[in-house]
Design goal:
With about 325 residues, this protein is of the alpha/beta class. About 40% of the residues lie in helices and about 20% in strands. It is built from nine helices and 13 strands. It has a seven-stranded mixed beta sheet. The protein starts with about 20 loop residues before the first strand and ends in a 5-residue tail after the last helix.
Length: about 325
């Protein structure tokens, strides 16, 4: 019987170590080199104190539909003029700016624009609104006189009738305009909830312009538990899910609302190079079961917004700084 050769426990002991930074392999379309001392130090600082975990763990809940399981998303490329991430531990623990932007600014601007247009149209209609008011005053005064009232009380009755008709014909913003006003109020309420997260390492952006679209992003949140795009709604009534899986706000289907926020999440995910989870935050209206999920969008009442963001860490402090800096460089505040 032949003898098997004895295996050397360290077959590479006689090979000279590669010089740091020197190429160790070059092939068709691929080049591998050893890290330089500076690059190794940056890597160790960025991942200091992180527990060992399987590649891609913690991201399953944030993967968009159709994304292959277990395949990590590519890290975003630095925008021109944006330096690579080299935050110190102290800088990562204390972000320079936990929140940016003015919540509800775009919605409030839309409300004021619509109200101004409607007020101008109402002012032009005074030509036909004034005669009914005068007619009501004269009629009220005449009827009071016929009823036997003296002149002063009859005059007061006529003025009261004119005031009643004038009040009914007063200027009132349309329901469409008031919806923008309520939307702005809802965004401000959500912002108050999100801005408290700065002490937990989150960075929040309000009222961002959607790239390539006139639409705006209500809130973008970057933090230890991931990246989220949040749409705020201040509604009355209830939000419920039918047996067919459709989401309704009172008697209105929310297909378009859900499709819009899902599109925003996918677009921002491609822009930032990381999965972005879509959330719909509902103020005042009752949400069935304390929270719903449809088309990949989580629908939660405002009181449970913090819980909906999660508490598991999937991003390091350095990664939070990186993605927040990328958002600042590639997105702008809504005009």
């Amino acid at each position: 019987m032949g003898q098997h050769p004895t295996l050397d426990p360290d077959p590479y002991k006689d090979e000279a170590p590669e010089e740091l930074g020197a190429p160790v392999y070059a092939g068709s379309g691929l080049s591998v080199r050893a890290l330089t001392a500076e690059e190794l130090q940056r890597f160790l600082e960025a991942h200091h104190g992180q527990p060992t975990q399987p590649l891609g763990s913690g991201w399953a809940a944030l993967d968009p539909p159709g994304h292959p399981p277990g395949v990590p998303w590519a890290a975003p490329q630095a925008a021109p003029g944006l330096p690579g991430p080299r935050p110190s531990r102290s800088a990562a623990a204390k972000p320079a700016q936990a929140a940016a932007g003015s919540p509800g600014r775009s919605a409030l601007r839309q409300y004021r624009r619509r109200r101004r247009q409607e007020l101008a149209a109402w002012t032009r209609s005074l030509v036909w609104r004034a005669p009914p008011v005068a007619a009501a005053g004269l009629t009220g005064s005449a009827l009071a006189t016929q009823a036997g009232l003296a002149r002063p009380p009859a005059t007061v009755a006529g003025l009261a009738a004119a005031a009643l008709v004038g009040w009914r014909l007063r200027f009132r913003p349309s329901p469409q305009a008031r919806a923008w006003q309520r939307g702005a109020a809802g965004e401000r309420q959500t912002a108050r909830l999100l801005d408290r997260l700065g002490r937990d390492g989150y960075q929040v952006f309000h009222d961002l312009a959607m790239p390539g679209s006139p639409a705006n992003i209500d809130h973008l949140v970057v933090g230890p538990s991931g990246v989220f795009v949040i749409d705020s709604k201040q509604w009355t009534g209830s939000v419920q899910q039918s047996a067919e899986g459709l989401i309704w706000h009172n008697h209105y289907r929310l297909d378009r609302v859900l499709a819009t926020i899902c599109w925003q999440a996918l677009t921002l995910g491609r822009l930032l190079g990381i999965p972005v989870a879509p959330l719909l935050c509902v103020h005042d209206a009752h949400v069935q079961g304390g929270g719903l999920r449809a088309r990949g969008v989580a629908i939660v009442p405002a009181t449970l917004l913090r819980s909906a963001l999660g508490f598991d860490r999937v991003l390091s402090d350095a990664e939070v700084e990186l993605y927040a800096a990328t958002a600042k460089a590639r997105l702008r505040l809504a005009a």
